[in-house]
Amino acid sequence: MADASLGDRDAAAWGVASRGEPRWPALLATATAAALQVILPETLIRGLGNRALIPALEGGLILVILIANPGRISEEEKRLRIIGLSLIALITIANVVSLVELIHALLYGTKAGGRPLVYASVPIWLTNVIVFGLWYWELDRGGPAARVQMSHRRPDFLFPQMSTPGSAPGWTPNFLDYLYTSFTNATAFSPTDTMPLTAWTKSLFMVQSLASLVTVAVVISRAVNILS
Questions:
Q1: pLDDT category, 186, cuts 50, 70, 90?
Q2: 194 in a structural domain
Q3: Which residues, 6+ apart, have CB-to-CB distance to 204 below 8 Å?
Q4: What pLDDT does residue 34 have?
Q5: What pLDDT sits at residue 49?
Q6: Average per-residue pLDDT for the chain
Q7: pTM
């Protein structure tokens, strides 16, 4: 009985195979991040070259994924993972460049352009939330395609449902859970109810918290300067 009880606790703690979630929530979030980059001021995207180049590349990769697999993610769709990771990496690089340009402009820009730059920090912060949610979703247990297998590796996140046996039998995380985790980490600057378990998740949490903290701190200081 003791061994069976221990097995039940392990199953509850480490999760079960995913049922295969639909791809559209992640694609919708990705398209939203690309759209947020389009509305940024020219000042914040000059480091990316042509204004339309990055959104066009992102749109092309989204279209490829949508055509290849518009429905539920299955084990057979592992070949799309490289395209998905490349898409997320492209959005990440573009947002990092925009964030660096924003910080530089807010610290050394003139008061005349300060107010639009403060407003421009909102899409950058929102993109930060989306892109890290996508990273968490794409990397946890080897990705959404790997999570449908019983042999998936141990989780990289400990969700509340996994640490409370019997609270949600058969529960598995989906994209919204990872997006929520990203949002709470970006607003609290630290983990809340979902804990990172592995080195890479802890590293990503630190990077996201730092980016969010710097954005908020610099924007607030600049806003105070404008009001004064």
A1: very high
A2: yes
A3: 132, 135, 136, 196
A4: 87
A5: 59
A6: 79
A7: 0.83
Nearest CA among 224, 225, 151, 215 for reference residue 187 = 215
- Contact of 173 with 143, CB cutoff 8 Å: no
- Domains in the chain: how many in total? 1
Sign of CA dihedral 202, 206, 211, 217: positive
The pLDDT assigned to 2 comes to: 38
CA distance 143 to 120: 32
User: What is the predicted pLDDT for the residue at 76?
Assistant: 56
Q: Is residue 8 part of a domain?
A: no
206 lies in a domain? yes
Range of the domain at 91: 19-160+173-227
Tokens of 169: 């039998």
Q: Is residue 11 assigned to a domain?
A: no
